[in-house]
From TrEMBL:
Protein name per its UniProtKB record: Trichome birefringence-like C-terminal domain-containing protein
Domain (Trichome birefringence-like C-terminal) ranges: 4-79
Any matching Pfam family: PC-Esterase
MF annotations from Gene Ontology: O-acetyltransferase activity
Protein family membership: Belongs to the PC-esterase family. TBL subfamily.
Species this chain originates from: Solanum tuberosum (Potato)
Gene that encodes it: LOC102587657
Domain of life (superkingdom): Eukaryota
Length: 84
């Protein structure tokens, strides 16, 4: 898949005159435990007292545990923009 993306970016750079870059955060994100929704999933039914006592059984840490995966993406983007 990444080869296709790299080829598309190369063609876009050649044709458009703009510099397009890819910041691949997929592999990095896979190393973070809270980045997997199967571990911290959201239930649509009201929470029981047992679930409330143990947030790791129901919490949605992809969005609510800070600092989280999106915060790391923002750090990389910020560092990349400063480098330009």
């Amino acid at each position: 898949m990444m080869k296709l993306v790299e080829v598309a970016i190369k063609k876009l750079n050649e044709k458009s005159g703009f510099k397009v870059e890819l910041l691949n955060i997929t592999q990095l994100s896979e190393y973070r435990k809270e980045g997997h929704s199967s571990i911290y999933r959201k239930h649509w039914d009201p929470l029981t007292k047992e679930q409330l006592a143990n947030p790791s059984s129901y919490a949605d840490c992809i969005h609510w545990c800070l600092p989280g995966v999106p915060d790391i993406w923002n750090h990389f983007l910020y560092a990349h923009l400063l480098y330009l």
